[in-house]
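Look at one record.

>
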Amino acid sequence: MDYWLKSSCRRRRENRHRGNHDYRTRHGNTQGYGIQISGPFPADSMFHGTAREQYDVAICMYHDQALIPLKTLDFWGAVNTTIGLPFVRTSPDHGTALELAGTGKANPESLINAILLAEEICSWRQKP
């Protein structure tokens, strides 16, 4: 699999002055897992169609790097997940829409997708 790390240009400029701690933290120890990690890359150029053909997963370090383009691509069906936690965390990629509660007008697609993704991640974690 080809995993790409995204980071803002501002963060990359800061890293030049602080060393490579953030780079090492994001890349972690992937040796022996068949994982290729590249980046960081600016979020404003990583989500168009041609760029998305080049990777399987975009790992974003900041909320706006991922959710703005993701919501633009698939507002109703997109799912947000946090990796690296000791538990599975997924959520719909939209607000609570409290004004729609009980009206029958809310679109449940993202919530359903979040539940299905959580189930899939749990099944991965249970494999030996």
User: Anything to note?
Assistant: The chain has five helices and five strands.
